[in-house]
Amino acid sequence: MLSYENRSSMAQPTPTPPSDHHLPLASTSPNNTLPSGTSISAQPSAGSPPTEHHHLWLITGPAGCGKSTVAEFLAQRMGLPFIEGDSFHPQSNVDKMSRGIPLTDADRWDWLIRLRTEAMARLASTGAQGVVLTCSALKRKYRDVIRVAPYYSHDLRVHFVSLHAPEEVLTARVMARPGHFMGAHMVHSQFDILEPPERDEDDVISVDVSGPIEQVEAEALAKIQEVIRSELVRGS
């Protein structure tokens, strides 16, 4: 979901066990293919030093915050596969959003499970050290659906790169983006249900996206590299 039209412009928490009925688990892997331009490299670049774990890097935030732009940059710099979360929405969800109808929790469960399943499948099929994935993850319980992933792969670490900016900034960006199913009116509905990460969600990296995209990308990459360096220090 590209929002910057002009480019000029952690310790892992313990997730709720899978028995929690609020975190649906059963899913089948979707047949969606990656969008054009997606990185499928399994080799880490200079921006991603090897670690002893595998990583899911979720780029999160409301519409207009630049999730796809930032995620594609990070995937390219770190040499990791990139998954565009919007492409995994069922058509019923796309139709609702196109009509300006906010998605409910029930609309999102299967989508979140598909993303989690696809990310883990991409790790297994490519041999990559990590995957970069876009997902709005507006509520804590949505993030918790993804946090269950390490129960199925014990060397997996989940991280959220939370992109944020004032509502009026993101609304203006969405209004300038033609042809996307997510209209500007949906930004307000997403802010209505947004649950910013809490202090105990220490797998979250916060990045302000109010500034130029180059600044946002550099900050996100630097913070990810710091997480990886911290892991290497702990493991040494």
UniProtKB/TrEMBL annotation:
<comment type="similarity">
    <text>Belongs to the gluconokinase GntK/GntV family.</text>
</comment>
<dbReference type="InterPro" id="IPR006001">
    <property type="entry name" value="Therm_gnt_kin"/>
</dbReference>
<keyword id="KW-0808">Transferase</keyword>
<dbReference type="GO" id="GO:0046316">
    <property type="term" value="F:gluconokinase activity"/>
</dbReference>
<keyword id="KW-0418">Kinase</keyword>
<keyword id="KW-0547">Nucleotide-binding</keyword>
<dbReference type="InterPro" id="IPR027417">
    <property type="entry name" value="P-loop_NTPase"/>
</dbReference>
<keyword id="KW-0067">ATP-binding</keyword>
<dbReference type="GO" id="GO:0005524">
    <property type="term" value="F:ATP binding"/>
</dbReference>
<protein>
    <recommendedName>
        <fullName>Gluconokinase</fullName>
        <ecNumber>2.7.1.12</ecNumber>
    </recommendedName>
</protein>
<dbReference type="Pfam" id="PF13671">
    <property type="entry name" value="AAA_33"/>
</dbReference>
<dbReference type="GO" id="GO:0005975">
    <property type="term" value="P:carbohydrate metabolic process"/>
</dbReference>
<feature type="compositionally biased region" description="Polar residues">
    <location>
        <begin position="26"/>
        <end position="48"/>
    </location>
</feature>
<comment type="pathway">
    <text>Carbohydrate acid metabolism; D-gluconate degradation.</text>
</comment>
<feature type="region of interest" description="Disordered">
    <location>
        <begin position="1"/>
        <end position="55"/>
    </location>
</feature>
<feature type="compositionally biased region" description="Polar residues">
    <location>
        <begin position="1"/>
        <end position="13"/>
    </location>
</feature>
<dbReference type="GO" id="GO:0005737">
    <property type="term" value="C:cytoplasm"/>
</dbReference>
